């Protein structure tokens, strides 16, 4: 079965943007996504209406031109991150959090109205649904005389084989090295480079609490807090522009230690911390959610538990050399040379990959 000219592994931002670019050039493609949804690490709280981001939330138009241009092209609206008011510093349980003057960085943090999933949905709406396959994991990528054969499987499908002329990988490099068999094998140096490239978000967990009102604003607080106690080490206002009050925080407990905690206990510890910082009203959220990316097997590997990620440069050659040159194109935010780990990096890597599509 020939399902298109170019196979795109991964239906996150980089993969969907690549499909969007290919579609505009009238190049056949197929997006193959292992999850039962699109977006990858772009993921939000459930429910109708505006959603709150459990993955990336911010963009910085001052120095991220690609994401700013795409948001405008897709006719999405944005708003500045709320930073008005004082911030809180929690140093120990023996003393109350200290209220200090808030600060704003030189570059304005911007959020997408309705949540970053609006970006994924807008891209998906511009792609033919028959060009997207969900719940389909790739086991083997085999180079043959007649093209590249991809063997896929899923919860509702037996092993299936599809053929393409080129493959663009838009998944984290460590997953590419760990989960997919290449025939012929990728050279050891390249594979080691993939394994050395940390997956952004992989060791992290994020907590979001939804409220009827942004009561902290009425008390002159920005919603920003830093804690040396935890479990949340950094907290921000996650409310949307007009409605849907919320706070979110990054969990500071290391990924390996979180494995010893059940989700209910960690949710309760986060809720109690919100009460310590913001008062009794913070103890009664309409709903609260936790996303532990380290427990997501389609994001994190064991290697991601060992070292904290940092924005940097990928540890692999651009482009690939040897047999897989021009057959396998590496994309995804981890492959970006300048904005690795950011949404801007996902688009940067996709732009780079497009130069090698035959």
TrEMBL record:
Domain Amine oxidase: 109-350
Superkingdom of this protein's organism: Bacteria
Family matches, as InterPro entries: Amino_oxidase, FAD/NAD-bd_sf, Flavin_MAO
Transmembrane regions: none
Molecular-function annotations in GO: oxidoreductase activity
Family in the record: Belongs to the flavin monoamine oxidase family.
Protein name in UniProt: FAD-dependent oxidoreductase
Protein species of origin: Pseudomonas gingeri
């Amino acid at each position: 079965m020939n399902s298109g000219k170019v196979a795109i592994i991964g239906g996150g931002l980089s993969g969907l943007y690549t499909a969007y670019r290919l579609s505009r050039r009238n190049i056949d493609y197929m997006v193959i996504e292992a999850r039962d949804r699109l977006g990858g690490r772009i993921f939000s709280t459930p429910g109708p209406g505006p959603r709150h981001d459990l993955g990336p939330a911010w963009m910085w138009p001052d120095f991220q031109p690609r994401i700013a241009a795409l948001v405008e092209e897709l006719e999405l609206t944005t708003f500045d991150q709320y930073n008005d008011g004082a911030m809180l510093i929690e140093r120990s349980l023996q003393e109350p959090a200290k209220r200090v003057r808030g600060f704003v960085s030189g570059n304005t943090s911007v959020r997408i109205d309705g949540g970053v999933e609006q970006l994924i949905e807008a891209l998906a709406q511009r792609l033919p649904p028959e060009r997207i396959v969900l719940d389909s994991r790739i086991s083997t990528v085999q180079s043959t005389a007649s093209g590249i054969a991809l063997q896929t499987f899923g919860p509702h499908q037996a092993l299936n084989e599809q053929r393409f002329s080129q493959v663009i990988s838009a998944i984290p490099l460590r997953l590419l090295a760990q989960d997919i068999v290449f025939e012929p094998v990728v050279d050891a140096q390249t594979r080691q480079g993939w394994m050395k490239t940390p997956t952004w978000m992989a060791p992290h967990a994020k907590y979001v609490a939804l409220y009827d009102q942004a009561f902290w604003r009425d008390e002159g607080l920005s919603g920003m807090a830093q804690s040396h106690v935890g479990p949340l080490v950094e907290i921000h206002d996650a409310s949307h522009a007009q409605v849907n009050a919320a706070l979110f925080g990054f969990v500071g407990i290391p990924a390996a230690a979180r494995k010893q905690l059940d989700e209910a206990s960690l949710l309760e510890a986060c809720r109690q911390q919100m009460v310590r910082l913001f008062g009794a009203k913070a103890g009664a959220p309409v709903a609260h959610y936790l996303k532990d990316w380290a427990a997501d097997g389609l994001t994190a590997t064991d290697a991601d538990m060992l070292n904290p990620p940092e924005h940097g440069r990928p540890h692999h050659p651009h482009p690939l050399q040897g047999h897989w040159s021009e057959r396998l194109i590496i994309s995804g935010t981890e492959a970006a040379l300048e904005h690795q780990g950011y949404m801007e990096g996902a688009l940067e890597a996709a732009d780079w990959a497009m130069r090698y599509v035959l």
